[in-house]
Amino acid sequence: MKLFKSILFLIILFPAFIVGQTPVDTAIEQAKSFIKEKKYPQAEAILAAYYPNHNKDLTTNWLYAQVLHWNYKNKLSEDLFQKAIALAPKNTAIQMDYARMLYESSDFKKAQILIEPLKKLEDTQAEALLMEANIHFWNGNIDEAQKSIQEIKKLYPNTDITNDIVKNIANATSPYLKTNFEYQSDNQPMTFVGEKIEIGQYRSWLLSPKLEVSNYNFNPTQQALTGKISNQLYVANIGFSATMAVGAYKNFSGTTDWIGGIELNQKIVNHTTLKVGYNKRPYLGTLASTAFNLSQNNLFADLDYSNNKLFSVHGGYNHQYFNDNNSIETISSWIISKPFSISTLKIQFGYGFNYSNATTNLYTAKESLTDAIVNFSPNATINGYYNPYFTPKQQMINSAILILNYKASSKIELGAKATYGFAAQCQNPYIYLDTDGSGATIFTTDYSKTNFNPYEVTAFINGKITSTIEAKLSYTNQHTFFYNRNNLNLGLNFKL
């Protein structure tokens, strides 16, 4: 929430109001002029040159601290705010600006220490209580947030400054229902129709339960059903969250198995998050895997830096393993630029890298050994398929990334994402007939280095139908080394 920077305007309009202020310097006037125009880098440049010879002046420290905050240099801003407060310890306007700076920088623990005395003073109590309410809300302490709101309404019965947070709390804590309908076809060939229902509600930092049920119907007759419950806890003041899930997977051609996992997220420094976890879930990526219960296990770690004013970077590792003791190692990374705007169109560019390799390759002949011997021809190839799951061998992909987002109106958003593998290669398996040491004919698998150009294009339209109903329609066309697929997806979200 944007708060009025009222104290700054008092500084700009009424310099004599500042305790102990001497006649303003030309440099200060120039800095204030840039501030009025929101040219904060230019204001900072002037104050940086002016400060060394005026570092004991209250106005200079105060104004410089505020400008540094607006330029996202919060550590130095904090130092100068503390110095300004030391110069005028009874000036509550400086304390309020410092509290606001900490609040807007999400340094809630320090902000709350300053807010506590300020919420008891008539001149600052409304904004201090409002900041306190928002901090409680963002920390997941909904009951405490409601207490702060009631205190504001008690002091100011006719105020509307609490309208936004009351609305935000109502939206955040309302139960929701998400539905998803999916159709996919590929050239294995495999087609399926899927339905998913998700019901959940955010209650507090400790309780955010969710129930998910998914059903997949594969051509011609296979069916798979999954159901799981999960909960997330979030400790905002240390930037930590944990999500735990458990459920069951039923393939109607096989047995029932458990699914679930745990995911831990920890904010390390500004814009940087580490995620680690484990999950067990169905594998339904190949035609063979739909005929029985096949589960995959994943151990993963991701490091992400996200800054919309600069760029975003991702690095990840995934260890995927199965009950047959086979495993697939994957290393991935990407870098995405900040959004570049042309009117209401936003464009981002990026680069991605992916490397994956399986311990054992499961490329298998489609025909039996007997049929292959009977039908043998020196010029014919023996066709194969991955059974029961895809196993890449030294697959490496370098990709260009393009992301588009267009805000057509306040209710309609369109977007697209495209990735193109401009330099990709793998060891491509092929099968031939050979003889073993005893002279018997056998299948033998070998590999040849193969270059390819995978790509994936997704386009979507997102629409707000009513204040409580949203819809999203998306289409994906993907070409990989393994297969080509088309996917159509419709999601409907309801606030209950």
Structure description:
This protein has 496 residues and is of the alpha+beta class. Helix content is 25%, strand content 45%. A 16-stranded antiparallel barrel has the order 1-2-3-4-5-6-7-8-9-10-12-15-16-18-19-20. It has a two-stranded antiparallel ribbon with strand order 13-14. Strand 15 (395-407) and strand 16 form a beta hairpin. The chain is elongated and about 95 Å long. The protein starts with 5 loop residues before the first helix and ends with a strand. Mean pLDDT is 92; it is low at 1-23.
Keywords:
single chain; alpha+beta; two-stranded antiparallel ribbon; 11 helices
Quick gist of this model?
The protein has 496 residues and is of the alpha+beta class.
State the end-to-end CA separation: 25 Å
Give the C-alpha Rg.
30 Å
The profile of the biggest β sheet is: 16 strands, antiparallel, barrel
Unreliable segments of 5+ consecutive residues: 1-23
What is the number of helices? 11
How much helical structure, as a percent, in the residues? 25-40%
Count of DSSP strands: 20
Overall mean pLDDT score? 92
Structural class: alpha+beta
* Shape verdict: elongated
